Amino acid sequence: MKILFLSFFFLINCFQKKIDFAIIHALTGSYAISVLPIVNAELLAIDDINKSGGILGYKVNPIIIDGKSDWSLFKKETEDLFQKKDIKAVIGCFASACRKEVLPIYEKYNKLLIYPAQYEGIEESNNILYSGSVPNQQLTPAIKWANDNLGKTFFIVSSDSLYQRVSNEIIKNVIKVVDGKLLGEEYLLTDSTDTDKIAEKIFKLNPSVVINNTIPITNNALITSLTKYNVLPNKSKMLLFKIAETEIVKLDKKESLIGSFAVANYFQSLEIKENLEFIKKYKAKYGEQTTISDPMISAYSGILLWAEAVKQAGTFDTDVVRKNLYGLSLSSPAGMYYIDANSLNLWNEVYIGKLNKDLQFDIIWKSEKPVKPVSYPRFKSKKEWNDFSQNYFKENGNFWTRKVQPK
């Protein structure tokens, strides 16, 4: 009888109808170090959905595409995908420059993109579920906390892309508001390893806090240089914004970051029931030595939020699903997620952690409650922010990130 039941279940599973769901990420190139663990979390979410019976009687069939850290390729692959297949939704991109490139295609075909990374705001689209955070859910509370607890002098080291330019504008405003002092601000091109001069400058200026707003591919060189010039681990405190546990473990001088601080909407060390259950499930699938980070949880939860909205809508139609996304809530490994009633951004808990010798973050501060997303910080008008964004785009020859100039 047991064999017959299993055979029957297997047949049902094989012949269950399927819907296509796309995963479009940079599986190779500069951003792969950050993105590959995120894809694992996305596939786990799809597994969970399918194991629970699928959505509206359909299994979710993941179609995985490598954008190769090339935003023009992301654009081409997305256009081709929508022309050739009936894709119900997509999760993808990591860099804001990528999201900006593909957004017009989602609006053209009225498709939904789940975007799992923290981003700069300055954008609201009905075709993107922003399951990451906006600056007031990370940058603002972190700078205020650092000014009160670490010291009042700051130095910004940053990659040169849209997210960093906007977020640094916000950081500088917060430093001014809390009566801190910015001692310097330096930008690095994508893939740059020329970091010794910046490290030497930071050593001489001796800020209380080094704000690290670089992408992970640049971090290895930067942390090595800061160690070489004795800025880390003891001379200055480092505040991390764009590098998580999954990337820290791969650094050459990772021990130099012990005692550094990070702000996120999730840390693996979070001791709540939902997170402990998720860690157990994730490690059972991908291995005990694996590490989990904030954007992985945003990706995992973003897919589950979409699935719940589809179930409530009773259809995969984008317009109907969108209406069911507004105000939707989910108990996640990071705590409670709420999609805002007026935008497709999430209310997020905010955590500040201190890196310990096990390369995990001890949580030393958290917000009293989930923080409402603010897409357009109020110290500039919406028009001024949009102009800021477009001016950066035009100054870079119609690119959303600073390009290495040909020799």
Please give a quick description of this structure.
It is built from 13 helices and 15 strands.
Could you please describe the fold and organization of this structure?
The protein is of the alpha/beta class and 407 residues long. It has 2 domains: 19-133 and 272-348, Response regulator (Rossmann fold), CATH 3.40.50.2300; 136-269 and 353-395, Response regulator (Rossmann fold), CATH 3.40.50. It has 13 helices and 15 strands. α2 packs parallel to α11 (294-313), α5 (139-149) packs across α6 (162-177) and α11 (294-313) packs across α12 (318-325). 47% of the residues are buried. Mean pLDDT is 94; it is low at 4-12.
Give the key terms.
407 residues; 13 helices; Rossmann fold; 2 domains; alpha/beta; 15 strands; 7-stranded mixed sheet; 5-stranded parallel sheet
Average pLDDT over all residues: 94
| Counted beta strands | 15
**CATH topology grouping of the largest domain:** Rossmann fold
Shape: globular
**What is the CATH class designation of the largest domain?**
Alpha Beta
Number of domains: 2
Major sheet summary line: 7 strands, mixed
CATH architecture of the largest domain: 3-Layer(aba) Sandwich
What ranges have pLDDT less than 50 throughout 5 or more consecutive residues? 4-12
- If you compute it from the alpha carbons, what radius of gyration comes out, rounded to the nearest whole angstrom? 21 Å
Strand content: 15-25%
